[in-house]
Amino acid sequence: MAAQSAAGELDRTDIQGMTMRPYRFPFAHYHVLNVSDSAKARRWFAGVAGRCTTVAGLDASPSQAFNVALSWQGLSAIGVPQATLSSFSQEFRQGMAARADRLGDVGDSAPARWDPPFNARVHVLAVVSAMTEAERNAASAALLSEVRDNGLTAAIAIDAKLLPGPDGGLVPIEHFGYRDGITQPAIEGSGEPVLPGAGIPDAGGWRALKAGEFVLGQPDEMGAVADLPTPASFSGNGSFVVLRKLHQNVWAFRNYLRSCARDDADAALLAAKMMGRWPSGAPLALAAERDDPALAADPQRNNDFTYLDDLQGTSCPMGAHVRRLNPRSGLTGPNGASVHRHRLLRQGLPYGSRLPADATADDGAARGAIMLLVNADIARQFEFVQKVWINDGNFAGLENERDPMIGGNDGSGTFTIPRVPPPRRRLKNLPAFVSTRGGEYFFLPGITALRSLAEPAAGTGS
Question: What is the DSSP-derived secondary structure letter of residue 226?
C-alpha cells in the first residue's frame, strides 16, 4: 500500500470528490447495497477505486461522478479486522437509528417508521451522479449488472434530481420552493474559489476552512490532527457521510402559512422569515423587506453577510432555518466562538415530483430530499447541528423553539419574529413540515484505502 501523506500535505488524487467539493450534477441515483460475499466484495471495492471521482478529478468538470462509502456494519461484513472496527467512534459504530433520540428522530420520524431498506441495517452507499438523465441511467444499469456478480445485492436505488422551475427547466430549488445550495463551506485545498460568505470572516474578507474539518488526517481549525481510526493508512484521506432521507409535507407548510397570514403577501413574508431567505435565494440579512432576484443571482453578494449587524434578529430571526444551520458571527460568548467547528458540506438532491402551486389538497405523494452531509467528526459536526442548532433553542436564547422548517416540532412549537418597533410577532402551534424516512452513517474511504481492501486482511494495510 502507498504511504499515507504527511498531515498538511493534501493529496487531492486520493480523496473522493464529494469529501471537499459540493456536487452540482442535476441527476443522481443513490444506491444502497448489502454485502453477500465478503471476499468478492472486497475485490470489487479495490477494483472500483480507480473509477471513483476524486477531488482532483473534478477539476476537469466531468459529466458524471461515482463514489462509494460503507457503514460500520458494511466494514464488518467485508471482513475489516476487529481492531480497526473498534477504533471508529461510538456514534459511527452504533449507526443513526440507535441514536434517534439524540437526533430528534422520534414520533413520525422514529426509525420504526423509516422506509425500506433503512428500517434494517444497510452496508454500502454507491452514488452515481450525472449531468444528464441518460448518463445517470446508463451508469446505474452498468453498476447494478456488475455488483450482482461481485458479492453485493442491491437494496434500493433512490431516483433524485433537480426540480423543474416555472419554465420547466431544472433549477436548484427544494420542494417548499426555495433556492437551495447557496451556503456551502469553502475548504482549503479543494480547488474551489472562496466566495464571500462561504468560509470564515477574516481581516475584512473570507478565508476557507481548514481541510481537517472534512478530511481525516489533516489539521483542523484548532491546528490539530484528530485521532484517527487505526491504522492511519486506512482511515487517512477519508471522511464520513451522513445520509438523511427527509420527507417534506409541502401541503402542511402551505396550509400553516394560510392559517397564520393576513394575505398572500404576508404569507410570503412569514415563509421567508421562517426560512431566512426569499424564494430566489436572496437572504433576509441583505434583503429584509422584499425578494431581490438580482441579488440572489450574484454569487459575490448573495452570501456575503455575518449577522453582526442583526444581533436581535430584526432582519433575519435568530431562529430562522438558514441562520440556525450557520449562525456565522451572530452568536455571542462561547457559542459564537465555536461556530466554525460545526460546519457541514451538503450534497444531495430532491426526490419525488413537485406539488402543483394550485393544488387544493395534499396528494399524499412521497417527496423530499436526500441529504448527504460530509464531515470529519459526526458527533461534533452533524450530531451537534441536529441536536443543538436544529432542535434546541437555548443556544441562541430562544428557550424552547426549534427550527421552524426541519425541527422536530409536534404542533405545540412557536417561532418568534422580532420587530422594530415592537411588539414581536409569534407564530404558534408549529407542526412538523419534515419527517425523517431513513438514514445511516457511512465512511468515505480514500482511494488507497479502497484498494487495500483486496488484501487478505482487509483494511490493515502496511
Answer: P
d(CA 105, CA 213): 25
Cβ atoms of residues 105 and 113 within 8 Å: no
Reduced to 3 states (helix: H, G, I; strand: E, B; else coil), residue 172 is coil
Which among 128, 117, 126, 103 has a CA at the least distance from the CA of 44? 126
Helix and strand numbers, DSSP H then E, in the chain: 14, 14
Greatest Cα pair distance in the chain: 70
Which alpha helices (DSSP H) does 37-168 contain, by range?
Answer: 38-48, 72-77, 82-87, 90-94, 100-103, 133-147
**Dist. CA 293–CA 309, nearest whole Å:** 22
**pLDDT exceeds 50 at position 4:** no
Residue 352 to residues 31, 114, 126, 240, 275, Cα–Cα distance (Å): 16, 16, 20, 26, 21
* Banded model confidence at residue 397, pLDDT cuts 50, 70, 90: confident
Confirm if 52 and 126 have CB atoms less than 8 A apart: no
Question: 322 exposed, middle or buried (CB, 10 Å; 0-12, 13-18, 19+)?
Answer: buried
Beta strand pairing status for 163-164 and 152-161? unpaired
The CA distance from 319 to 416, in Å, is: 7
pLDDT digits (tens, 9 = 90+) for 151-203: 999 999 999 999 999 888 999 999 999 999 999 999 999 999 999 999 999 88
Q: CA nearest 41: which of 460, 363, 453, 462?
A: 453
Cell of 430: 408549529
